[in-house]
Write a structure and sequence with these properties.
Layout: E1 3-11, H1 15-26, E2 31-34, E3 50-51, H2 59-69, H3 72-79, E4 89-93, H4 96-111, E5 118-120, H5 122-128, E6 139-143, E7 147-148, H6 151-164, E8 168-170, E9 177-181, E10 184-190, E11 193-202, H7 208-213, E12 221-231, E13 241-243, E14 258-265, E15 271-278, H8 289-302, E16 311-322, E17 328-331, E18 338-342, H9 351-364
Parallel strand pairs: 1-2, 1-11, 2-8, 4-13, 11-18
Antiparallel strand pairs: 3-7, 4-6, 5-6, 9-10, 10-11, 12-15, 12-16, 13-14, 14-15, 17-18
Helix pairs in contact: 1-6, 1-9
The chain binds flavin-adenine dinucleotide.
């Protein structure tokens, strides 16, 4: 069996793992990235690439998102075009409960440091997004600093950059087993050989519970399935990233669905429409007719003129969340070189800066003060 040694081994080639590989390699770490399927084949290839500010859950992720908002140009200079567009983000509201929820969200976002967000009238919303239904919306939440990237390009370009800096990328190489000795992960067993690394980073998204179990570690990470669809390219229709206000009030219904329309039109003219959310078992990524039908109905409720759109593809992705709905970031208590990075909500835009924190940890052994609350050791497992 082939044996290899690295400073850092990252498991998972989504945006988070690929960003970590890039940032570690750029700091001089001898780095390997293991991915069980293709690079960019998990949740990171299933989303419309919204770069979210408005619904950041805590001060850490808000500060990362605000910093990244100012860095897209320099990021693209460094890794290449990821189709960043400063579209602004609109959350149309169709009833008073949504208005109340979004008013609270605006206050929360302002407390976290996002000044430029607020509720606007229906008329103002229609000026910003003329295809919205005049009769159905009662107002909107507007966040001008939001934007959109092409998530495939971001993921793949970060992985390519890591490779160009000397990182070894191992797609189609699942981590199958971890050998733990004296409180350290000693060896990673894969079909491509045995790997030793000073630091082992689990960036395994929805699969983190199983990956951590290989080291005898139990973390309360679960997953949900988000279903989405995309249309044929059409003439410009939508200008902004649009997130349905219904997604901020809806608890799962009696059939287990949370339904809302999150839409955007890509540079090539395709309209991407997400999402129906459910909680499946066995990593089931199939689409449901009910979910897609209800999302389409909701999209048409907000944008009646989309009724001629021809949908060409649908898919779903599995996204992780934790018991307390906050991310996990840090070393697991009993295993001194096992670093878990998981459940950062809407991780696309903040992945480069999450990765920078991991690379800084590798270099200095320091976790930033504002990230300490997200230690995996906060759970009583
Ligand atoms: C429909 C939908 C819409 C979304 N919209 C947005 C949005 O607009 N903006 C946004 O920021 N976020 C959005 N998200 C969420 C976003 O996709 C995730 O936050 C992000 O992709 C998580 O990245 P990740 O690298 O942590 O996970 P993933 O991309 O899932 O990567 C984890 C990787 O680990 C690999 N892996 C797991 N176990 C092993 C193993 N044992 N060995 C080797 N490899 C392993 C998996 O194959 C996978 O590739 C959306 C999600 C969905 C489903």
């Amino acid at each position: 069996m082939k044996k290899m040694k690295f400073d850092a081994a990252i498991i998972g080639g989504g945006v988070v793992g690929s960003a970590i590989a890039w940032k570690l390699a750029s700091k001089g770490a001898k780095t390997v990235l293991l991915e069980k399927d293709d690079i960019c084949s998990g949740a990171s290839c299933t989303n419309p690439g919204f770069c979210v500010l408005s619904y950041r859950e805590n001060a850490l992720t808000m500060s990362l998102a605000l910093r990244q908002q100012r860095q897209w140009e320099s990021l693209q200079d460094e890794i290449g075009d990821v189709e960043y567009e400063a579209t602004g983000g609109l959350i149309p509201l169709t009833d008073e409960s949504q208005e109340e929820a979004l008013s609270k969200l605006c206050s929360h976002a302002k407390k976290l440091g996002l000044d430029d967000i607020g509720l606007i009238s229906a008329k103002e919303a229609i000026n910003l997004e003329p295809a919205l239904s005049e009769t159905r919306i009662i107002g909107a939440c507007w966040c001008p600093g939001e934007g959109r990237v092409n998530p495939f390009k971001l993921n793949l370009r970060m992985a390519d950059k890591a490779k160009s800096l000397g990182a070894k990328l191992m797609p189609h190489t699942p981590l199958e087993k971890m050998i733990v000795e004296n409180g350290r992960v000693k060896t990673l067993i894969t079909p491509g050989g045995e790997i030793e690394a000073e630091l082992v980073i689990l960036a395994t998204g929805a699969w983190t519970k199983d990956a951590a179990k290989m080291a005898g570690v139990s973390v309360p990470v679960f997953y949900e399935r988000g279903e989405a669809m995309v249309s044929m390219p059409v003439a410009p229709l939508l200008k902004r990233i649009i997130t349905d206000g219904a997604l901020f009030t809806g608890a799962p219904d009696e059939r287990g669905f949370v339904i809302g329309a999150a839409l955007t039109q890509t540079k090539d003219g395709n309209v991407v429409i997400a999402q129906a959310t459910t909680r499946p078992s066995n990593y089931d990524k199939s689409n449901t007719l009910e979910g897609m039908k209800r999302v389409a109905e909701r999209a048409l409720y907000l944008f009646p003129t989309l009724n001629e759109l021809e949908i060409i593809r649908m898919w779903s992705g599995l996204v992780s969340y934790t018991a307390d709905k906050q991310p996990i970031f840090g070393i697991y208590r009993d295993i001194e070189n096992l670093f878990i990075v998981n459940s950062f909500h809407s991780a696309i835009a903040i992945s480069p800066l999450i990765a920078e924190m991991v690379a800084d940890y590798w270099k200095t052994g320091i976790i930033p003060q504002e990230a300490k609350a997200y230690t995996p050791n906060r759970f009583n497992t």
